[in-house]
Design goal:
Elements lengths: L17 E6 L5 H7 L6 E6 L12 H17 L3 E7 L14 H22 L4 E8 L2 E4 L1
Parallel strand pairs: 1-2, 1-3, 3-4
Antiparallel strand pairs: 4-5
The protein binds zinc ion.
Zinc ion binds next to loops.
Length: 141
Amino acid sequence: MEKEISFRSSAEHYAADACIVWCFDDRFSGLLGEFSKTFKNFDLVKIAGGAKALAGGASPERDFVLNQIKASIRLHGTTRVVLMLHRDCGAYGGSKNFENPNTEKESQESQLTEARRFIMNEVPGVSVDAYFADFDGLYPV
Ligand SMILES: [Zn+2]
């Protein structure tokens, strides 16, 4: 096969500072870039809804995300999991699905708390941080 792009990728193995579960909504990719500057290496699970699948009970999607986190821990010794939900997420029907901006934020905080609790139960010993991403920045929950 012919090479399309010449690029030198590091072949060195690494330890990940975090496994980040982030929504694939590109409006928040810039924020992820800013936030992830604090990490040397991280594993990124970038999926529709971010941490949504980890809240709200058993599902194939929840198993998938949990297994991605466990793979990050197994392969890269990850000790920190970062969970993210954001304003106007299509996976939740967008902001229009909430009564007002405050109820949206409170609902997402509650979802993040549930997702964090699930990961802490499933993967003892890992630290779990949760964040609500808004259009003006990132808020720890
Ligand atoms: Zn989203």
